[in-house]
Amino acid sequence: MKYKYVVIGAGAAGLVVAIGLAKAKKKVLLIESNLFGGDCTNFGCIPSKTLIASSKIAHSIKNAKDFGINFKIDNSRIDGSRTDGSRIEDSRIIDSDIDTTNVFKRVRDTIEKIRLTEDQSALKKIGVDTLKAKASFKTDKIIETVDEDGQKKVIFAKKIVIATGSVPFIPPINGLDKTPFDTNETIFNLEKIPKSLTILGAGAIGSELSLAFQRLGCQVNLIDLAPKILFNEDIDASKTLKAIFKEEKISLYLNSSVESVNYQNDSFEIIVKNSANGYVSQVKSENFLVATGRRANLKNLNLENAGIDYSSNGIEIDIFARTNKKHIFAIGDCTGDPFFTHKAEHMARSVLFTLLVPVLKKKISLSLMPRVTFTDPEVASIGLTQMQAIEKYSKKHIATYFVSFDTLDRAICENEKNGFVKIVTHKFSGEILGACIVAKRAGEMLSEIILSMKKHIKIHSLANIIYPYPTYSLAIRKAADKYLTETIFKRKK
After folding, report:
1. Hey, which end of the chain has fewer CB within 10 Å, N or C?
2. DSSP-assigned letter for residue 72
3. Predicted confidence (pLDDT) per residue in 179-197, tens digit
C-alpha cells in the first residue's frame, strides 16, 4: 500500500490532520489500534464532563432550599417511605432519594453519539481511508500494521504524522497490580455509582471525579502526595477547592502516600501514610481509581527502526512539530506534557497547514496554554501564578488584582460564594502575566484574558470596555479598575 500521507492515531490530533487533508482532496490513511475518537471522546473529556453534568443536577436538587424551593412529597402517588423501609420525615430531597441508576448509561450514550461523527464510517464519507490495526515502523518510510485477526500489511508513506496520544501512568505501589483498580479508561464502564470510592491523585482528573462521585451519593476518599489540591495551580484556587471538598464531606488525605493496596471480599484496603507526621491510616472502599497523571503512548511503535529521537517524556520535535526525520511529524500527547486536548488540536492545525502549504511552514507556539479543571466551580488559568511571577520578576515588580465574588452582583444572585478573579501583572506597565478564575463558567471567562495576553492588551485597557450587566465577566473589569485605584492613583497620591 502506498500513501503520500499516513496518520497514526485517531484521537483529537490525528483526526484534525486526517480530516483536513481529506477535505483538501489529499489521499490519506488514518491508522488506529483502539477506538476512533481517542482518549478525549472515549475515556476522558466527554465521559467525565457528562458525569459532571449529572452530578450538578443532583447537587442543585439537594440545595434547592437555598433558592427558596421546597420539594413536597405527593402522598397520592407514594406512601412516604423509602426503599429501605424507613419513613420520609420532611419535605426536603436528600441523598438517599436520588436515583442514579441511569447515570452511566447516559455517559455511554453521549460517548456513542459523539463517536458516530468520528468512526470509520463517518470518516469514509469525508474521504479518509482508515485501518484498525497496530502500527510500527520498519524504516522511516515503511510502516507495518497488524489487525485484530493477525493480518499484516506493509505501507509506504512519504509524510507520516504520529498522534498516538497518552496512557495512564500507574505508580509502583505494593500490591496494586494484583487488584482490579480503575483508571480513566475503565471507570466509566461501571454499571452503577459505587457506595465508596478512593481516588489517588488530586490533579484535574482526580479533583473533577471526586466532586462528581461525591455528589452522586458515593463516599469519596482523595489521596495525594502534594500538600494541596491541584498542586500546579494558584494557591487561592487550591484553598477554595479544599474548603468546598470538606464542605461536601470528601475525605482528604493530602501530603500522603499509598504504602500498599489489598483487595479482598469485594473491597479495597489501602494503607496511607502522612509524609509530615508519619501517621498511618487504613482506608477502605468499594472501588479504587488511580489518577496519577499520564505518559506518552509510544509502545510498540519501534521508533528506533525509523531513527526517531525520543525519551521517556515523549517524541522530540522542533518548532514545526517535525522529528529529527523531517518528513515525520509528532503531535499531541505523544510529544509529552502538558496532556491537553486543546494542545493536541492546536499542534494538529499547525501541522495541517504546513503539510498543505509547505513553503509557508507554520511554527507552533505553546507559550499561552490555558488550563481548565471542570470542578464546580471551575478553575481556569493561564500564564504565571502569583508565586511564579514573583520568583521571576521579584515582588516589587508584580501587582496582583483579586476580585472576590462576594462583591459581584451576578454571583450573589446565583448564590455562588466561592468564586474569584485573580490577575497577575507587571506592576507599572500593566502587562498581564497570568490569571486564575474560579467560577461556574471560568473556562469561557478565561478567553478574554487569553486574547489580551496574545495581543499584548494591558489590564487598564479592559477597564474601558462596556461589559453587559449583570455578568460574571464584570469581575474582570473590577480587577482592571483596581489597577487604576491601587497602582496609578495610589502612586500619584
Report:
1. C
2. P
3. 999 999 999 999 999 999 9
